[in-house]
Amino acid sequence: MSQDAVSTPGGAPAITIYSTAVCPYCVAAKNFLKSKGRDWTEVRIDLDPVEREKMMAKTRRTSVPQIFVGEVHVGGYDDMMALHRAGKLEPLLAGQGPA
Questions:
Q1: Is there a contact between 71 and 4 (Cβ–Cβ < 8 Å)?
Q2: What stretches of 1-99 show up as alpha helix (H) in DSSP?
Q3: Which uninterrupted H or E stretch holds 16?
Q4: Do the beta carbons of residue 29 and residue 93 sit within 8 Å?
Q5: Domain residue extents for the chain
Q6: DSSP assignment of 56-75, as one string?
Q7: 15-93 in CATH: which number?
Q8: What's residue 72's pLDDT?
Q9: Up-side HSE of residue 63: CA atoms within 13 Å toward CB?
Q10: What is the pLDDT of residue 12?
Q11: Shortest CA distance to 49 belongs to which of 62, 35, 37?
Q12: Low-confidence ranges of the chain (pLDDT < 50)
């Protein structure tokens, strides 16, 4: 899947995670998505300064992870889990619009 993908072949929005090698919240986010049976594209900003600049321009944040579902910026791990607890993440993952 390319880093520019917005949806998967099944129609669900593609997930992009901006991360670094040493990031426990990145690992937690990926483990959570794996438990949901979801795949993602990982963009390692510690290996690619250009991608880091793109992430900062898109999110206005410097911390990781930064998670996108399609074109929707979910935020970090805590933001994703708050959406999950509120029952708003699953519809977003299914392609039913922003939370």
A1: no
A2: 24-35, 49-59, 77-85, 89-93
A3: strand 15-19
A4: no
A5: 15-93
A6: HHHHS--SS-EEEETTEEEE
A7: 3.40.30.10
A8: 96
A9: 8
A10: 86
A11: 62
A12: 1-4
